[in-house]
Specification:
alpha/beta, Rossmann fold, six-stranded parallel beta sheet, two-stranded antiparallel sheet, 8 helices
Length: 200
């Protein structure tokens, strides 16, 4: 299955969840599908989308939080799974786009691409609801339970590596603007204070 097809299904099931995207392919494809301005797109910090999403989920337990991670970013910060398993955030849904390559830098193969079992690693870290999904019909069937079930939920989307990824343009604004769009959206929706009087 293809990343774009997966994200189209996820977008239809989102129902107001806060979304955090890993940098590169995940962010660009999510923007292409949704043009979502209330999503946090990770800029220049490979591996840290998971840490940001976990912090967000713990700070706003009343808000569903979706993390659209990639296997490259996950492997850059694999310890995040131990923290996630230890904290057990009921509102966190962690999706990993697993194409087994570093797509953004020309589809360089990942180490362990044929052997690494991310769902098994997540279960070993304490995330009981962890599963791989390899086809669209299985994803369509599983999504309602993933959305409604107790978290954390960890889902590995086994997708194809795609040569045309770099033709997908990123969101048309940079980090500072994205930070304020996302933060102001959170303030409005949840009645919380993200920024101080000086704007940070």
């Amino acid at each position: 299955m293809k990343t774009r097809e997966c994200f189209e299904l996820l977008a239809a099931e989102r129902r107001g969840a806060l979304v955090v995207c890993a940098l590169g392919m995940a962010a660009n494809e999510w923007w292409a599908v949704t043009e979502s301005e209330d999503t946090f797109y990770m800029h220049g910090a490979m591996g840290f989308a998971a840490s940001f999403a976990l912090g967000l989920a713990l700070a706003l337990p009343q808000a569903p939080v979706w993390l659209l991670n990639s296997d490259g970013s996950l492997c850059m910060n694999l310890g995040c799974l131990i923290t996630e398993g230890g904290q057990q955030p009921a509102n966190l849904r962690h999706f990993v786009v697993a194409n087994r390559v570093y797509q953004t830098v020309g589809a360089v193969p990942m180490v362990g691409r044929g052997a690494a079992d991310y769902a098994l690693i997540a279960r070993g870290a304490g995330i009981a609801a962890a599963r791989p999904i390899a086809d669209l019909e299985s994803l369509r069937t599983a999504l309602p339970a993933i959305s409604a079930g107790p978290g954390p939920q960890f889902t590995v989307l086994e997708v194809e590596a795609e040569a045309g990824f770099l033709g997908t343009p990123p969101m048309p604004y940079e980090g500072p603007e994205m930070k304020y769009r996302f933060g102001r959206s959170v303030e409005r929706r949840f009645g919380v204070k993200v920024f101080g009087p000086q704007g940070y």
